[in-house]
Design goal:
Elements: E1 29-32, H1 34-43, E2 48-53, H2 62-70, E3 75-77, H3 80-87, E4 95-99, E5 105-106, H4 109-117, E6 122-126, H5 131-143, E7 148-152, H6 162-168, E8 176-180, H7 183-190, E9 195-199, E10 217-222, H8 230-234, E11 238-240, H9 253-265
Parallel strand pairs: 2-3, 5-8, 6-7, 6-10, 7-8, 9-10, 9-11
Antiparallel strand pairs: 1-4, 2-4
Helix pairs in contact: 5-6, 5-9
């Protein structure tokens, strides 16, 4: 049985007298798509504040609805046209959870040194601006078992958003995102424990040149249009490039990331 609630706004929070304040919708993520919502429910069900789904999704949400009901949190069946409004996009797959986002953590090079001792590679994004690219990269990282990504303070850098969550298809529940301000300085400190390798279109070595690296690799990818900033390149121990047929100049950064994660980090 689906519990009926009002939308715009929903105020069914907790038991009467429980004193629980309503959540601020502006601080909640729209996690859309069945894969993403199921991953969220599996890893952190407590972060889900509301659930909206179309009739066709009822067979997938029974346990979610039961858990939400026990926590006195609302859920609702909605029509397709209404779901577009709830999700803020037509690309919702028939289900949307409004949830507390995972925090983006401050990057700590001392902690990264411990990861390096375990032989774990590191992916760093310096100015990847399209949230769809960020989501696709996170999805690839999760697929290959890479559990951490560092994003820079670059003015163009995308951060986890509704679009990134949707494209990541649950990957953002399995990959922790860290943020490093003043990335050039951070890379300088990382070089003690990692081989810092930047990706560029030219003047680089092929991937196989780094297969026998003595240290774990910290792979750095740059902005879709401008590539890596000069101060970032200056702190790289080496540059890696992918050679194609020459028919087109380059790959999309998410495609480049998929290849290099597989070849150098996975």
């Amino acid at each position: 049985m689906v519990r009926k609630i009002r939308h715009q706004p929903v105020r069914t929070y907790g038991k009467p007298g429980a004193g629980r304040p309503p959540r601020d919708d502006r601080k909640l993520m729209h996690v859309a798509g069945l894969d993403a919502v199921q991953a969220l429910f599996k890893t952190a069900p407590e972060r889900i504040e509301r659930l909206f789904f179309e009739e066709s999704m009822k067979g997938h949400v029974g346990e979610m609805c039961l858990t939400l009901a026990k926590a006195h949190k609302p859920y609702r069946v909605v029509r397709g046209d209404e779901m577009d409004k709830v999700a803020g996009t037509a690309m919702h797959g028939g289900i949307v959870a409004m949830a507390e986002p995972r925090p983006v953590l401050e990057f700590d090079t001392a902690l990264a040194a411990e990861w390096a001792k375990e032989g774990e590679g590191l992916l760093i994004l310096d100015g990847v601006g399209n949230p769809h690219n960020l989501g696709a990269i996170v999805r690839t990282a999760a697929f290959f078992g890479l559990t951490r990504i560092v994003i820079s303070g670059h003015k163009e850098q995308a951060t986890p958003s509704d679009a990134a969550y949707r494209v990541a298809r649950g990957g953002l529940e399995h990959v922790t995102v860290f943020k490093a301000e003043r990335l050039a300085d951070v890379l300088k400190r990382l070089k003690k424990d990692y081989l810092v390798v930047g990706a560029a279109l030219e003047r680089g070595k092929p991937v196989e040149a780094y297969w026998e690296a003595a240290k774990p690799i910290a792979l750095v990818l740059g902005n879709e249009e401008e590539g890596l900033p000069r101060d970032t390149i200056a702190q790289c121990d080496g540059i890696v490039m992918l050679e194609g047929s020459g028919a087109v100049q380059s790959l999309n950064v998410a495609a480049t990331a998929a290849i290099l994660i597989h070849e150098l980090l996975a």
